[in-house]
Amino acid sequence: MTPGIEVQITGGLDTGIKSLKDSVDQLEAALQAIPNIPPMQEKLEQMRAAQEQMTTTISKMEALKRGIPEAFESAKKDYIKEIDRESGKLEAEFQSTLNTGFKQVYATVAIVSVLALLILMFYKEPKVCKNIGNSDKI
């Protein structure tokens, strides 16, 4: 499965590559349309140099696009290695946090139990009427 950020990056590169290719094509068409006369020679050379720079940029962007999946895979492997390297610390912290949580739960249960016992100490059993069952003596 390709991460969303990788899709966004490659999509952006695709858009940029397409835009540059369109620009190169338009520049090529413009170069063909301009007559090759001496006063225009310098400007034509500048346009050809710009076209060459755009072509080089396209090549670099395509190479970058090809390298993105490998870069993400490498980053994932490095991340997993880092987690494995720190696993002892992570496990200790996790265990410590669990232990603290359980201590708090047990302390809460103990306090509530003591409070319940105190409340029950004041609880009095209701007096039972001795005439229950003899309805004729009421």
Describe this structure as you would to a colleague.
The protein has 138 residues and is an all-alpha fold. Helices cover 80% and strands 0% of the residues. It has helices at 4-33, 41-85, 87-121.
Strand content: under 5%
Order of helices and strands: HHH
Characterize the overall form: rod-shaped
User: What is the SS-derived class?
Assistant: mainly alpha
- The separation of the N and C termini measures 84 Å
| Helix percentage range | over 70%
- Tell how many strands the DSSP assignment holds: 0
Uncertain ranges: none
* Radius of gyration, CA atoms, in whole angstroms: 40 Å
Largest sheet: none
Task: Return the average pLDDT rounded to an integer.
Answer: 87
Q: Helix count, per DSSP?
A: 3
